[in-house]
Amino acid sequence: MEDQLQPLGNMEVSEDSAAVRHLKEAIAQGKHWYIALLEAIGLWDKTEETYNGRDYRYLIANEAFDWLLLAERLLQEVGHLVLEEEIIDLIFWGKAPIAVSTEEFRQCIGEAKYCAHLNYFYGIIVEEALLLAVEEKVRKEQHVYALDGNHITELAYEQIYDATMTALLRRFKREKGYPQRRSMELTECKEFTCWLFKYRLNNCDKERVASDTKRGLHELERQWAVNKHRRGFSHTDNPQMPSNNSPNPAH
Fold this sequence. Notes:
By secondary structure, the protein is mainly alpha-helical. It has two domains: 92 residues, no CATH class; 115 residues, no CATH class. The protein is 59% helix and 5% strand. It is built from ten helices and four strands; from the N terminus they run ααββββαααααααα. The protein has a two-stranded antiparallel ribbon. A two-stranded antiparallel sheet has the order 3-4. Strand 3 and strand 4 form a beta hairpin. Helix 5 packs across helix 6 and helix 6 crosses helix 10. It is globular. The two termini are 30 Å apart.
């Protein structure tokens, strides 16, 4: 099975592409739509596309695979065959409709995409959770310091990266050749977060990196626990959380 993502640029994808065709046929033959979806993701070979007037970029920084974005795109092809509530639970809450082990998930989407998924998980999802956790820690200091939102963010960045967000964002854009404007699109924000993760790996000592990554994981687990309480999710419902045997690039 082809499991590499090929940088073929922006292009419309026809409905008879191998991945879409497999998704439709597998569901029609009685396979559960979630398994068919994961197999279709394994067959997918484009890093980005324009579909129905929307730009989709599935591979961030050429290394971090946003599989849920691709899942959202593919499910548009079979939305009439899948319960809307199950689609919403997967795309917006990360809740799988059936239990699938980490090994099954890896086999369905392929080794290369699974490794790129781990890059996305640790480099973007966990890094965002780390930032939220540290911002919350700084925010609790407001009873001492009158801090606005931007000041809180700058202090959180200094605690994690020993530099302000403003300075790091300027460096990121300079390295990437991006214009030094204040606004960023969502994909550029994700790329910046991935860049921050690698910056932390390269500029902080290993013990601190591991400790901060652990803090990010704990914050993520806390968020999922809130979702579990509110929506009845279990830890194993979330396919984004790798098993303990999955490689952690922060170690």
